[in-house]
Amino acid sequence: MRDPVCGAEVEGGDRLVHRGQEYAFCCASCRWAFERDPDRFALVNSSWGEKVGS
Fold first, then answer.
1. Closest C-alpha to 28, from 52, 5, 51
2. pTM for this structure?
3. How far apart are alpha carbons 39 and 54 in whole angstroms?
């Protein structure tokens, strides 16, 4: 899975679900940036997340 903010490959790490999609973050700074404007990163990098559920 890739961090939607910086594009780094993330194994484990901090995760967050936004609009039914799970995102992983490499560090607290990237999670903070995502939480401030999630739609900006979710739309631009939508292929980096993994869908949660079916």
1. 5
2. 0.74
3. 22
